[in-house]
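Please decode residue identities from the backbone states below.
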């Protein structure tokens, strides 16, 4: 599922795109079938055509040959072949932007603001490549990445949309812009034009030094190692860095995207795919906790089934998840510690061995110090009892 274009590069959907598509197909099959249906596609096509005719001015190759020539060149370099129409949007705010209005087998590009006057030819070429890359992505895999985008868009329109839906939509849009930025570089056959275009569109400035902006972005990465929190378009510095890494084939670009766009698991910012990760981590934790047969008592198993009604101690024991700072933040560790405390305190007769087992698992998770703090904060254990538990030899703790 990739497109090899003229300079030998592959435009491939990002891992996050595939993860979201897989999640929606598995967990929301009825919604997926609806969003992928021909009826939904035809309705969207009618609405798109009507909106373009109503709210914009249609440019023609005769009146505006330059954007059509650049669009044709960008399509050639991206390996695309489809009729293209370019529109100028009504100017309500004076800002610059562009967007692809997707229709299968047709390219409709909508320009907003003075792009044709402010951007150089190379920058316009990069802009065309960026928007055409959206069309390329939506056309891959029988349109499955478009279907996912459509589902997320409609979900956000629901007042009852959960925070996980909002976060998934935000990240999906951001990863889509990263993919499209790559298309801009391919069309321009250089890194600098799409970076300059990105900054010009965001700031309105007339002249941009791409190398200086990339250096600025690197300095920000040093000062702020956190992950993205904004929407797709304001994250210019992250997108510029992501594009530079991809263009120069930097090692582990996918891992860099994971850390800088998504960041470690955070209980306050779980998207749909991260929820799946946390569920798996919790089930794995239970499998390790109940590896001690002495703790497979009815009250503890009932507590485990409060989390997962189908839980059984016979389920496969998988490797414990990594809880390092690059993978999960304190909120995830606190949550898993709370799960173990709930188990350890479920049966008063097994309280001591259950707590010792929890400490052993905390050792395995390399979160011993944090778990000892949780014993005082959440379980109300006194210092003397915590010290006794912490000083117990490994064999007494059940190792």
């Amino acid at each position: 599922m990739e497109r090899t274009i003229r300079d030998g590069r592959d435009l491939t959907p990002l891992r996050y795109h595939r993860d979201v598509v897989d999640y929606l197909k598995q967990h929301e099959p009825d919604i997926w079938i609806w969003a992928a249906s021909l009826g939904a596609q035809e309705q969207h096509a009618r609405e798109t055509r009507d909106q373009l005719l109503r709210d914009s001015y249609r440019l023609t190759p005769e009146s505006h040959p330059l954007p059509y020539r650049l669009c044709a060149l960008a399509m050639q370099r991206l390996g695309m072949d489809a009729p293209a129409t370019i529109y100028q949007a009504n100017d309500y705010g004076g800002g610059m932007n562009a967007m692809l209005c997707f229709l299968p087998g047709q390219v409709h590009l909508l320009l907003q603001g003075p792009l044709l006057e402010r951007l150089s030819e190379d920058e316009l070429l990069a802009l065309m490549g960026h928007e055409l890359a959206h069309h390329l992505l939506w056309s891959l895999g029988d349109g499955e990445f478009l279907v996912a985008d459509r589902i997320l868009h409609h979900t956000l329109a629901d007042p009852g949309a959960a925070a996980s839906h909002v976060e998934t939509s935000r990240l999906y849009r951001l990863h889509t812009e990263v993919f499209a930025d790559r298309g801009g570089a391919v069309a321009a056959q250089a890194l600098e034009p799409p970076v300059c275009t990105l900054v010009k569109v965001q700031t309105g400035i007339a002249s941009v030094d791409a190398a200086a902006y990339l250096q600025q972005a690197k300095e920000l990465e040093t000062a702020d190692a956190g992950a993205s929190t904004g929407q797709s378009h304001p994250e210019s510095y992250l997108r510029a860095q992501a594009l530079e890494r991809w263009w120069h084939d930097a090692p582990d670009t996918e891992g860099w995207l994971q850390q800088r766009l998504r960041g470690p698991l955070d209980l306050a910012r779980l998207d749909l795919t991260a929820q799946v990760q946390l569920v798996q981590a919790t089930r794995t934790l239970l499998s390790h906790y109940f590896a001690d047969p002495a703790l497979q008592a009815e009250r503890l198993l009932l507590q485990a089934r409060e989390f997962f009604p189908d839980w059984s101690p016979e389920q496969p024991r998988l490797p414990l998840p990594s809880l390092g700072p690059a993978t999960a933040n304190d909120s995830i560790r606190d949550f898993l510690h709370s799960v173990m405390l709930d188990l350890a305190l479920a049966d008063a007769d097994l309280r001591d061995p259950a707590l010792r087992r929890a400490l052993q698992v905390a050792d395995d998770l390399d979160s011993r110090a944090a778990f000892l703090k949780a014993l005082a904060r959440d379980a109300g254990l006194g210092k003397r009892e915590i010290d006794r538990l912490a000083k117990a030899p490994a064999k007494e703790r059940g190792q």
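Observation: Strands lie at 3-4, 10-11, 56-58, 84-89, 97-100, 107-112.
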